[in-house]
Amino acid sequence: MKPILEPIEPTDAVDLYLMEKKSEVSQWTHYSHGSRLGHFLRWCAEQGVDNLNDITGRDLKRYKLWRRDDGDINNVTLKTQMDTLRVFIRWCESIDAVSPDLSTKVESPDLDYDDNVRTVMLDSEDGEEVLAYLRKYKYCSLPHVVFELLWHTSLRRGAAVALDVDDYDPQTQQLNVRHRPDTGTPIKNKARGERTIALQGSVCQILDDWIATGRPKTTDDFGREPLLATNQGRAHGQTIQRYVYTYTRPCVYAGDCPIDRNIKTCEAAEAANQASKCPESVSPHAVRRGSITNYLKKEVPKPVLSDRANVSIDVLDMHYNEMTESEKAEQRRQFFE
């Protein structure tokens, strides 16, 4: 017997989906799903689709081709977006919004091994140069504290945002990463992402100075004291991202451009809010990848680094270990001499 579908507009379905997912996933995952499904809503609007009941497998094929060409995106990005769409369509099946098993018709591109390994990272030399610049010219500013934490702890952006002043223990020189979804700061992997990180003395000194003299005495909407605070309260993830893009531009920390752009006329160099347009600047995740790779080069055991960075060893090897083959060979040499 053919099921009776209940009419629903695409925007209403996405809103309901995101409302339900809000308590089940991290804030960043929730944002990412909304962003990816935004492209599907845009396509629906362009095609005049005002009832998801009418969506067919052929429509999903058309959407995949449209998204690939419209966004000029690579296979990794296309796969991520189509995988999210599949999850959404499966959810739509559960509320009788689309035909049963329609989710099985959402096609996602197959990836080669090399496609699925993202190699953008901040290498150790550049990372140390950024830190040297911030320590000299922006000491104990929020951008400086953010970068020290991301580089030395390999934290994800969301975990850094979630930190409170009380999560830092200056006596034991440790940082506690905690999942607090009820008060606005969920973290990736939820309770499994909770951990305690040992800090270097130099990082503790910066945190001590930040808390004593630099940090605005503000609280967030839940009355908590965020470690990464602004005059408005807890620093937002987009703020963290903007800082990282701003200070990883070589024209800022090194004073020159490795791709020979004219710094005086370069749009990305002229304004901090255009920093992400610099081909040489990187995101917070690229800093995390560089931090992890730097520790691997220093021969920190993988199980230790896996616990510290909250990433499995398999994923660490596939997505975070950016050592060259020559560097890996030299690291293995000690075991055979």
UniProtKB/TrEMBL annotation:
The keyword DNA-binding applies. PROSITE patterns: CB, TYR_RECOMBINASE. It comes from the Archaea. One of its GO terms (molecular function) is DNA binding. CDD domains: DNA_BRE_C. The keyword DNA-binding applies. SUPFAM superfamilies: DNA breaking-rejoining enzymes. Residues 117-333 form the Tyr recombinase domain. Keywords: DNA integration, DNA recombination, DNA-binding. Residues 8-93 form the Core-binding (CB) domain. This is Integrase domain-containing protein SAM domain-containing protein. GO terms for biological process: DNA integration; DNA recombination.
